[in-house]
Amino acid sequence: MDQVFRSDLALGMPLYREVKHKIMEALRDGEWKPGEIIPAEKRLCERFGVSVGTLRKAVDELTSESILIRHQGRGTFVASHSQDRYMFGFFHICPKTGQKEYPKVEFISLSREKAEPDTVKRLGVARGARVVRILNRLSLGGRAVIIDDIQLPERFFAAMTEDQVRERRTTLYQLYQDVFDVAVLRTEERLDAVGADARIAGLLGIAEGTPLLHIVRRALTFRDEVVEVRHSWVLSTDHEYVASDEAHRS
To answer: Which of these three, 63, 78, 93, is where a domain ends?
Structure first.
């Protein structure tokens, strides 16, 4: 149901930010799904009781954050996951010389187990909660460069199967969205430098103790629910971590 917009809901907040907040509420409530077009400007202006200029400023900010995507001549859509969006918005490993390339992903395993204490904290789940755990090896330029250890709350992904992960023809984030109705909006990442332990060294075919970049990512939905914790170990001899606003907007 359309709601009359009230500027007193957020006293002191610029009007366009209040509109942005209301659009985000609609997204969190699932009113407009990933890949769907949002209502026309006239309809939204009537709904929120604001001018076209104010509405456009709110939509511009959501577009710059890759929450909404404009398609010339077609309208404005809720961002949906694709291989290109993953590459430019979430995958930050590039050759030190040359262009970013799509990794070749090799599925290693899928298991179900009790969440470890660190995972409990990062996922925000109860102690004893179970997770779906996926292990992948990623190659760039024909060489194994990255190990991804991905842990998902079982309550969101209880029906996930090994075949779904192994045989998918798209990114994991698109699988989450299309099959499990879990849409990743944003990620948070922490980086540190580590030496390869025996397990990671064996998977990458390198000597134990080889310097690696360790990335810990949390993926969050429109409702700010944490739906993934991903540990990535990156062989940084010929590759580096590159993230920029320009890449994120692509």
So the answer is: 78
End-to-end Cα separation, the chain, in angstroms? 33
Give the model confidence (pLDDT) of 11-39 as tens digits: 567 899 999 989 988 888 889 888 889 99
How far are the Cα atoms of 92, 222, 248 from residue 244, in angstroms, in the given order?
A: 9, 22, 6
Query: Which residues are 137's β-sheet partners?
Result: 106, 147
Pairing of strands 186-195, 143-153: unpaired
Distances (CA, A) of 77 to 27, 60, 71, 74, 90: 11, 12, 8, 9, 19
CB distance 169 to 113 below 8 Å = no
22 & 65 share domain: yes
Q: What pLDDT, in 10s, does the model give residues 211-227?
A: 999 999 999 998 889 99
d(CA 203, CA 206) in angstroms, rounded, equals: 8
Co-location of 46 and 90 in the same domain: no
Express as a percent the part of the chain with pLDDT over 70.
Answer: 89
193 and 118 housed in the same domain: yes
The number of residues in the chain equals 250
Q: Does one domain contain both 124 and 212? A: yes
Domain carrying residue 36: 7-78
